[in-house]
Amino acid sequence: MFKKVLVANRGEIALRVIRTCKEMGIKTVAVYSTADKESLHVRFADEAVCIGPPSSAESYLSIPKIMAAVEITNADAVHPGYGFLAENAGFAEICEEYGIKFIGPSAKMIRQMGDKITAKETMIKAGVPVVPGSDGQVKSVKEGLKDAEIIGYPVILKATAGGGGKGMRIVNSPDEFAEQLEKAQIEAGASFGNDAMYMEKFVEEPRHIEIQILGDQHGTVIHLSERDCSVQRRHQKLVEESPSPFLAKKLRDKMGNAAIKAAESINYEGVGTVEFLVDKNKNFYFMEMNTRIQVEHTVTEEVINRDLIKEQIKVAAGEKISGKNYYPKLHSMEVRINAEDPYHDFRPNAGHISSFHSPKGHGVRVDTHVFAGYTVPPYYDSMIAKLICTAETREECIKKMQRALDEFIIEGIKTTVPFHKQLMRDERFLSGNVTTKFMDDFVLK
């Protein structure tokens, strides 16, 4: 087992990793930018190293600075959390070269799944259903128009190096193609330094359902059931739950087996998520694989009663996992509390938190790095907390969430708490009749 883990991240996920390491008897190192010196992950780590100014490029994305922090603290492993360098194959490779364990998959695995075209080709070979699409990159408008005609409109353009909804555009007709391709390429180039695009059939009325998987260094891969992440805004998830209100056991088993096939095809090591689009007729298609822990891993932890960060660390240290799949025993739901003003198009709202009271009680969990007196910096993702509620049924879970949201007090900044309060009383949401288009006609009152 590792003696000291450096957490190459910030905020709630850094604190989350530090907590599990402490419970496992592992020393921890926090890294932080000057904007994060008051953050709780800095306070609760055994050691903390400032790695630069607020800009992510000069701090959390600076591989030389993070490796320098590893060296001066004698850490023997790095946990990347999610975002930043979590799916950076170059970073994983450097860790490998210097004999530092990257707690996650190998650089080769990250590359195989990180490029969407390669990932899709790998899934086709593994026999996993994929959305019909272009044969490789869209190299020109002329070629793209030809492919779109064969696939059939509407189509969706996606960045091959993409994620988080960046570099994605829906094209409804040939007249729009050139303009939307150019916009997608500009956004992809700015976000990922790579403007390569591919194209897929746009699945209408889809649900976004992902399967949590876990693989060890000895060839065993299991699935830990699904999460439904269909409530989204601009491809960013707002609510996640497990189990999905849409899946019955037969479909859950089929998707779980497909996810295992996907992971086995690359000898996957660590926790990961295979994401699928599921249409109204319950046909499912591989979308992408995330080779890291996810924001919403908490709901899986709650319904199967396992610490996924602990599993991730144990697998990275070479331990075997039990060879059985896990299924939800309870119902769990997570809402993301963001420092945004939902009444003004979810505009980011960084600033000083004057008062902070998080809800408590049986089946209520809050993962956060903020507190009364904390100043939310404007430089990073706007998520400041995750509220997770767990109960025996979906109906009980929603009632618990309603109560917990009523108790959640954050003053001094605008947050998405009012949005979630309304969502938890929305008739469509209560019925479980939710697709990724749900937010298109949701009106905040």
How would you describe this structure in keywords?
single chain; 445 residues; alpha+beta; Rossmann fold; Dna Ligase, domain 1; D-amino Acid Aminotransferase, Chain A, domain 1; 3 domains; five-stranded parallel beta sheet; four-stranded antiparallel beta sheet; 14 helices; 33% helix; globular
Any overview of this molecule?
The protein has 445 residues and is an alpha+beta fold. It has 3 domains: 4-103, Rossmann fold; 132-201, Dna Ligase, domain 1 (2-Layer Sandwich); 207-441, D-amino Acid Aminotransferase, Chain A, domain 1 (2-Layer Sandwich), CATH 3.30.470. 33% of the residues lie in helices and 25% in strands. It is built from 14 helices and 24 strands. The protein has helices spanning 11-23, 40-44, 63-73, 89-97, 107-114, 116-126, 141-151, 174-192, 249-264, 297-304, 308-316, 394-407, 417-423, 427-431; strands at residues 4-7, 27-33, 47-52, 77-79, 101-102, 155-159, 169-171, 197-201, 207-215, 221-228, 232-233, 236-237, 239-242, 270-278, 284-290, 331-338, 340-341, 347-348, 351-352, 355-357, 364-368, 375-376, 383-391, 409-411. The strands form 8 sheets. It has a 5-stranded parallel beta sheet with strand order 3-2-1-4-5. A 4-stranded antiparallel beta sheet has the order 10-9-14-15, with helices on both faces. Helix 2 links the parallel strand 2 and strand 3 (47-52). Helix 4 (89-97) packs antiparallel against helix 5, helix 5 packs across helix 6 and helix 7 (141-151) packs across helix 8 (174-192). It starts with a strand and ends in a 14-residue tail after the last helix.
